[in-house]
Design brief:
heterodimer, A: 160 residues, disordered N terminus, B: seven-stranded mixed β-sheet, four-stranded antiparallel β-sheet, 16 strands
């Protein structure tokens, strides 16, 4: 896509100087953000978040999922910018989910088999339009940021 | 660039031939034309210089940023991002912390100001429609509002010049309300646009090629549009018109143009005989008050800002503000009437995703079609339809509708695939009739951070506009239903009351209108002040009415016409 844009610029007869500038811009942009360091969540929370986003947007025949698109890192960045009450909603939400898992299946969420994880996801997503419990509300914001992060990622853009 | 003023041995600065205030469409055109004729021009811009290569994010994708387009600090999520989004080339905005304005009790008005070389033309929609004879002489048809002192024959040669120079797409249609022009070939319609066009035919609404200031063949060293579709982000190849890249940067190469940036104009200076002799401004970088002198002064600071400068230019000879013997400066403030309706069209579901080559915005639009029906419509003037849809650039916030109710898992992806491209939105852009409740004046109590008295706005739509907005709403609902779709929303954030908030369409005009009678107008038909021969105002403030044609092209044409007139008058020594 990017290469194509650059070629079109040349084909369109854009002055060489301009193409160089555009090309530099495109090259700089091709260096996707990397070496991201967690700003808000700890490693453990991030692993859980990563799994949750992948459950919301899994890899399928068409494209990679939220895990490959590193959506949890986007969420970390946005939560780091959020007000304390929103940040609390995230930490409390992750903790409540963990508690739910231990209560129902006597295991941390990440150690549950897929079917059990799915049961918990079903519970927290069932009132998406009118969430009432803490976990239902957490699902809303979790899903919202997951959609944002995935569909603005490279695979979300070009392959999904 | 301040050298021209500052390097003089004596305390008396150079006198320019023309001092222009405002580096947007009007000031850019004036500066380019005058500098091209050999005049020494000083151009004042309240904002900084523009470096497109650094500023424009034309080809960026959201995933090139950690924040994916939400903006630094996630600003887009928290309602404090750039207007229209991180990627857009907008400078300034709805609120400028150092330059407040006030709104009178009972009024709502918002004022978008760009503070940068090129002004709002760096990011504007670039819709370029000619006023018709009917627009200019509308009173003759319906008895409502004033006529313009000029007719289509006066403007047409300058529309020709402006279109040839800036480049406008379009097709020849012979529609009386939408005069044809000198056109570049438009890009082909997108799939959803063809569907809308077909349904429009059934409903008697003509959807024709959009007329936008984008070139599709190379002119004047500008490359033809490369169809990235992101005009609002600024165009690195200047294929989309902007006053900065198309007027001002080339004019600087003549050596006749001196650009003074970060220069906040405060007032026009006049001499004892009542002639303008320059502009008093504040250098934002040093906070120093400075003067730049000229044989003629042209205000093109934007409709309300020019009115503000005139009203703040009080003197013994001009106690009510400069050129304001008529009391019309600040009066007759108009914006465009706006109302939008969005819909979901199942017929567009699951369409194979294709690269919708073309320019940003719609490739089609509908000029006003009901010009013979106003008696039965119950409102005097028309509107045109702009619409959107298709495979738009996704960003944060854009996938929520499709994903809603899909729970979690693979189904979300299936829904997103199915719904991508199935949403459409229609927006009306209609004429507002000037009224005595809509004006701006100097707020007697408040000055901005630069010590300059600020504007206070008063604004009201009348029944004419409300009825027109209801017609828009019914029409757009009808189109969506005719497409087999369902209406998903009426009104955007600015339109919660059922009509756009005054100023929010950013088409404000009328505050120093032209006319033949100095008792009821500020300017003559050449944008020259009745009371001050060497003072011109060539932005939207000279407009007499505000037809449904987005104002920039007419500003380009009127400013060019004023420049020719001014140059001729200077040649004769008659300013």
């Amino acid at each position: 896509m990017k290469r194509r844009t650059a070629l079109k610029l040349v084909a369109a007869g854009v002055a060489a100087e301009r193409v160089q500038i555009a090309g530099r811009q495109l090259f700089a942009l091709a260096q996707a953000p990397s070496g991201y360091k967690l700003r808000f969540f700890n490693d453990e929370q991030n692993l859980l978040l990563d799994r949750l986003t992948e459950l919301i947007i899994p890899a399928d025949d068409h494209s990679p999922g939220a895990h490959a698109a590193k959506v949890s890192l986007f969420i970390d960045l946005m939560v780091s910018y959020s007000k304390p009450d929103v940040q609390d909603q995230w930490t409390h939400g992750l903790r409540a989910l963990e508690n739910e898992s231990r209560e129902r299946f006597r295991k941390p969420f990440l150690e549950c088999v897929a079917a059990w994880q799915d049961q918990i996801m079903q519970t927290i997503s069932r009132n998406e339009d009118h969430p009432t419990t803490e976990l239902e509300k957490f699902f809303r914001i979790l899903k919202s940021r997951t959609i944002d992060g995935y569909y603005t990622s490279e695979s979300g853009f070009t392959r999904s | 660039m301040l050298n021209a003023l500052m390097t003089q041995g004596s305390s008396k600065p150079d006198v320019f031939d023309v001092v222009v205030v405002g580096a947007g469409a009007g000031g850019g055109t004036m500066s380019r034309v005058m500098a091209g004729k050999g005049a020494k021009v000083a151009l004042l811009e309240a904002g900084p210089k523009l470096v497109p290569e650094e500023e424009f994010k034309e080809h960026d994708w959201p995933y090139h940023y950690d924040h994916r387009g939400a903006g630094p600090g996630g600003a887009g999520y928290f309602g404090r991002g750039k207007p229209f989004g991180f990627m857009r080339t907008t400078s300034g905005g709805w609120e400028l912390p150092d330059e407040p304005y006030t709104v009178g009790a009972g009024s709502e008005f918002v004022w978008f100001r760009s503070r940068i070389v090129g002004g709002r033309t760096n990011h504007y929609g670039r819709m370029s429609f000619r006023l018709s004879e009917w627009d200019l002489k509308a009173r003759d048809r319906d008895g409502v509002g004033p006529n313009w002192p000029i007719g289509y024959a006066d403007l047409a040669p300058y529309y020709d010049k402006a279109e040839k120079f800036i480049g406008v797409t379009g097709t020849h249609e012979g529609i009386p309300s939408a005069p044809d022009g000198v056109f570049h070939e438009p890009p082909p319609p997108k799939a959803h646009e063809l569907l809308v066009q077909a349904t429009g035919k059934k409903l008697g609404i003509p959807f024709i090629a959009n007329r936008r200031a984008v070139i599709t063949r190379s002119i004047n060293g500008r490359a033809a549009c490369h169809y990235c579709g992101q005009c609002g982000r600024g165009c690195l190849t200047a294929s989309a018109y902007s006053a900065s890249q198309v007027d001002i940067f080339p004019a600087l190469k003549t050596g006749n143009l001196t650009l003074l940036t970060d220069a906040m104009a405060r007032e026009v200076l006049t001499n004892a005989s009542g002639k303008a002799e320059g502009v008093l401004y504040i250098d934002r970088n040093t906070r120093q008050v400075k003067r730049v002198l000229g044989k003629a002064v042209v205000l093109a600071a934007s409709t309300c800002e020019s009115a503000r400068i005139l009203l703040n230019s009080k003197s013994k000879l001009f106690p009510n503000g400069l050129a304001n013997g008529s009391g019309m400066v600040g009066r007759n403030l108009m914006d465009t009437v706006g109302l939008s309706v969005s819909g979901y069209v199942p017929a567009l579901e699951g369409m194979p995703v294709y690269n919708t080559d073309g320019f940003g915005g719609s490739h089609l639009y509908a000029p006003w079609w009901g010009y013979n029906d106003h008696a039965k419509l119950g409102f005097p003037r028309g509107y045109h339809i702009e619409f959107g849809g298709g495979f738009r650039m996704p960003g944060v916030h854009s996938g929520h509708n499709a994903a809603r109710r899909a729970g979690y898992g693979k189904r979300i992806k299936e829904w997103m695939r199915q719904e991508y491209g199935a949403r459409v939105g229609f927006a009306g852009r209609g004429e507002m009739i000037p009224n005595r409740f809509s004006y701006c004046e100097i707020d007697p109590a408040i000055v901005d951070d630069w010590g300059i008295p600020v504007l206070r706005f008063h604004f009201k739509f009348s029944d004419y506009e409300w009825k027109q907005a209801r017609h828009m709403e019914e029409t757009f609902k009808g189109i969506i239903e005719s497409l087999g779709g369902r209406v998903t929303g009426v009104g955007n954030a600015w339109e919660k009351s059922g009509i756009s908030t005054g100023g929010s369409i950013i088409h404000e005009v009328g505050t120093a209108r032209m006319g033949t009678d100095p008792r009821s107008s500020v300017l003559n038909p050449y944008c020259q002040a009745h009371e001050v021969k060497n003072l011109f105002v060539t932005d939207g403030s000279c407009f007499v009415t505000n037809p449904d044609k987005n104002p920039t092209l007419t500003i380009n044409a009127l400013s060019w016409r004023a420049a020719d007139y001014l140059a001729e008058a200077m040649r004769k020594g008659d300013v």
